[in-house]
Automatic annotation (TrEMBL):
Gene3D superfamilies: Tetracycline Repressor, domain 2
Protein name (Swiss-Prot/TrEMBL): TetR/AcrR family transcriptional regulator
Source organism, top-level taxon: Bacteria
Domain HTH tetR-type: 8-67
TM region positions: none
InterPro entries noted in UniProt: Homeodomain-like_sf, HTH_TetR, Tet_transcr_reg_TetR-rel_C_sf
Annotation: DNA-binding region: 30-49
Keyword Transcription regulation in record: yes
This protein's UniProt keywords: DNA-binding, Transcription, Transcription regulation
Entry keyword annotation includes Transcription regulation: yes
Amino acid sequence: MTTTTPKAAPRDRLLDAAAALFYREGTGTGIDALCRAAGVSKRSMYQLFDSKDAVLAAALERQAPGLEAKLLPAPDEPAGPRDRILYVFGRLEEAAAAETYRGCPFLAAQVELKDPGHPASVVAAANKRHLADFFRAEAERAGADRPGRLARQLMVVYDGASARAGIGADRLDDGLAVATASALLDAAGVSA
């Protein structure tokens, strides 16, 4: 008995292809390549989305919950604010160890697009704000003097480590991101 897997809907195939291609090749990937990878005609793509920009924004938006689930700790684990912050940097180091790692897809989109008003930049910025809000909330919970500033510093480390690992300029397998974030937490008086 042979079973076949039902083919995904065109919209899903477009979003899956967009997420993979834009992450691997960049936002300059053309519509022809996108449609070919998705197995969808350009006509069908334009019936589903107004533009390639809309596909990119939708693909990033669709990725956000899964990436967040991999990156952020569950509400009850680990319990302490310092450990919860360092958990994020540990997940970053794990992700960066993959041969296919190209950095944070949200940061990459923002850097490539350079237009904060672009639909994909808006989605990416919201995701980055959410991570900064997580850092700020944990810093406040830990009693840091300037939790907003600490959150910004942690974002600089996160984005910098992600970008450098994504372009192959640095490896994070030696604990570099966790150690750097730890130093910031120490300086801010955030202990275990």
